[in-house]
Design a protein that fits this description.
The chain has 95 residues and is of the alpha+beta class. It has a three-stranded mixed beta sheet with strand order 1-2-3. The chain has four helices and three strands; from the N terminus they run E-H-H-E-E-H-H. The protein starts with a strand and ends with a helix. The model has no long low-confidence stretch (mean pLDDT 95). The protein folds into two domains: 40 residues, YefM-like domain (YefM-like fold, 3-Layer(aba) Sandwich); 53 residues. Helices cover 63% and strands 18% of the residues.
């Protein structure tokens, strides 16, 4: 996978667009840190590519929430405790 800076993307955009189909993906960096991914797509695979991207984002968000739950100790809450919390919130909203 090829890495290129924002500066390179701006200065050599024609070259980047020409190389992208062969590379398939390129990582864009700013100050040496990854900030974006360019991926080669076409009209035939646009919807599939968007769906895969959205699925990957959802998986990433779920993993983040699971890690935070472990860090905060909320991964050990029982189903009864969860239901009691839901009931409590619903009662407060109903008032």
């Amino acid at each position: 996978m090829k890495f290129l800076s924002v500066r390179d993307l701006r200065g050599q955009s024609a070259k980047v667009w020409k190389e992208l189909p062969g590379e398939r993906e390129m990582v864009i960096t700013s100050n040496g840190r990854p900030i974006a991914i360019l991926a080669a797509i076409n009209e035939a695979n646009l919807e599939e590519s968007l769906s895969a991207f959205r699925t990957a984002r959802a998986v990433e968000a779920t993993a983040y929430l699971q890690r935070r739950s472990v860090e905060q100790g909320t991964d050990r809450i029982t189903l009864d405790e969860i239901n009691a919390e839901i009931k409590s919130v619903r009662n407060k909203r109903a008032r």
